[in-house]
Amino acid sequence: MSDLKNTPPKGVIIAVSVIILLVLFYFVMEAMFPQLFQNLSTGDAMPVQE
Question: How far apart are CA 7 and CA 40, in angstroms?
Fold first, then answer.
C-alpha cells in the first residue's frame, strides 16, 4: 500500500507555491522600490461628471 494516498497533485503544490512566492516578491519589491507602485490604481471611485 502506498503511504501517499492523501497528497494533492504536483500541479496544485506548484500553483500554491508560485502564488506564495509572487506575494512575497511583491512585498520585497515594495519595500525596496516604493516609487514603482505609486501610480497603481487603488480602486477609488470617482464622481460621475455630467
Answer: 39
